């Protein structure tokens, strides 16, 4: 706290990202990065861009990337917005598309950046409880609101909402913007981008940090009706005209174009997830059904915070949230088969009671 801070800054409650440890020997399963590298074609495109042209500003519209995304999803480039990570895209969405007269709705257990953006932009919000099985019930969102947002699959639970339920939500809320944050959709869900032409109130956000292995480049996107996109462009052009640098634009476009590599690495992560779920259940963990590149698990006989600390001492980091309802869960990112095995090896040494559990 400093006397130079404005009252606004004094009252901000910032988001706390997962740890990025300096030690490279750690098995890092805490921030849902991809265990595989980016597409070799994306790396080659970025290397080719490392030249004298860096003295020039990049294309402020990132048109090359917008077109690659539009081609991939069969939409028009004017339906696409791109930004510096989906966190930045989400920030512009909160700023530009959620109303202040009524509360924004999102689940009680969800991405913890949402309430932070509400604080930053002065947006009132109400949390809507997930059901007993930690699932979103769209019927609970039929109440006055200034917008709706949720990740699909949800984070940190990994649970997926079918497109049919999202359509019911869109129909029930024709006067609100409904944002589906699809950071993890490529690991087991169907994208709601297929619905954007029919629902002008739908905006879908995605990131290249997870399924396209480019967390270090910071690229995110949104797809929706051109009028929603125009609102985001207005905010962006009032804040930072060049959110994506030259390398990010060409690297992200190449990542979208290299479908074969993307599909293969997603398949590998999904196969590893299924295997890890089996191993965790063998050790007595209850594991929520996951359509993401992480699993959310608890052990009936062990305190989750203690488990996370014990794992860390053995060089394996996972994420624990000190939050009501989920205090006894660990969120574990899917690693390579070797990383997952390292986790299981450490857990095995903790001598769990060998009860066989079912998914919740
Ligand atoms: C649900 C969700 N949305 C958005 C993001 C932000 O992703 P990025 O800013 O890396 O694109 C994350 C990151 O973990 C996330 O879990």
From TrEMBL:
<dbReference type="GO" id="GO:0004400">
    <property type="term" value="F:histidinol-phosphate transaminase activity"/>
</dbReference>
<keyword id="KW-0032">Aminotransferase</keyword>
<comment type="subunit">
    <text>Homodimer.</text>
</comment>
<dbReference type="InterPro" id="IPR005861">
    <property type="entry name" value="HisP_aminotrans"/>
</dbReference>
<dbReference type="Pfam" id="PF00155">
    <property type="entry name" value="Aminotran_1_2"/>
</dbReference>
<comment type="similarity">
    <text>Belongs to the class-II pyridoxal-phosphate-dependent aminotransferase family. Histidinol-phosphate aminotransferase subfamily.</text>
</comment>
<protein>
    <recommendedName>
        <fullName>Histidinol-phosphate aminotransferase</fullName>
        <ecNumber>2.6.1.9</ecNumber>
    </recommendedName>
</protein>
<dbReference type="InterPro" id="IPR004839">
    <property type="entry name" value="Aminotransferase_I/II_large"/>
</dbReference>
<dbReference type="InterPro" id="IPR015422">
    <property type="entry name" value="PyrdxlP-dep_Trfase_small"/>
</dbReference>
<keyword id="KW-0028">Amino-acid biosynthesis</keyword>
<keyword id="KW-0368">Histidine biosynthesis</keyword>
<dbReference type="InterPro" id="IPR001917">
    <property type="entry name" value="Aminotrans_II_pyridoxalP_BS"/>
</dbReference>
<comment type="pathway">
    <text>Amino-acid biosynthesis; L-histidine biosynthesis; L-histidine from 5-phospho-alpha-D-ribose 1-diphosphate: step 7/9.</text>
</comment>
<dbReference type="GO" id="GO:0030170">
    <property type="term" value="F:pyridoxal phosphate binding"/>
</dbReference>
<dbReference type="InterPro" id="IPR015421">
    <property type="entry name" value="PyrdxlP-dep_Trfase_major"/>
</dbReference>
<feature type="domain" description="Aminotransferase class I/classII large">
    <location>
        <begin position="26"/>
        <end position="347"/>
    </location>
</feature>
<dbReference type="InterPro" id="IPR015424">
    <property type="entry name" value="PyrdxlP-dep_Trfase"/>
</dbReference>
<dbReference type="GO" id="GO:0000105">
    <property type="term" value="P:L-histidine biosynthetic process"/>
</dbReference>
<dbReference type="InterPro" id="IPR050106">
    <property type="entry name" value="HistidinolP_aminotransfase"/>
</dbReference>
<feature type="modified residue" description="N6-(pyridoxal phosphate)lysine">
    <location>
        <position position="210"/>
    </location>
</feature>
<keyword id="KW-0808">Transferase</keyword>
<keyword id="KW-0663">Pyridoxal phosphate</keyword>
